[in-house]
Amino acid sequence: MTMDATQGPAGVWELRIGVFCTTEQAEQLTEKIQLMLCPDPMHRPPCPIPWSSAHWQLDDQEAAENYPELIEQARIEQPPGGPVPAPGE
Question: How many whole angstroms separate alpha carbon 48 and alpha carbon 11?
């Protein structure tokens, strides 16, 4: 991805992707997204396209605040007594 002056000034953009998955799946997805944003992970710092990621457990308060619909859907799809506690439990 290249930018030139005709495209206007750079700004901060936030892209959120809420995914209900295992830790391993989240790490694999993060690696793939990193390669889309920064195709040369071995470059010298700083990264020309700064980015970050966050991973939360379903019972973390941050997850409840940022992805309430995703958490509710995960609870619905889990079997009774499954591993998805309500926030604060």
Answer: 13
CA distances for 79 relative to 18, 23, 63, 74, 76, angstroms:
21, 20, 20, 10, 8
Q: Which residue has the tokens 């379903």?
A: 58
Specify the higher pLDDT residue, 83 or 19: 19
87 domain residue, yes or no: no
CA 37 to each of CA 2, 21, 30, 83: distance values in angstroms, whole numbers, following the listed order: 11, 21, 10, 33
Please tell me the total count of domains within the chain. Answer: 1
Task: Give the domain extent around 65.
Answer: 55-80
**Which pLDDT belongs to residue 37?**
86
In a domain, 68, yes or no: yes
- Is 64 a member of any domain? yes
Q: How many residues does the chain have?
A: 89
pTM of the model: 0.61
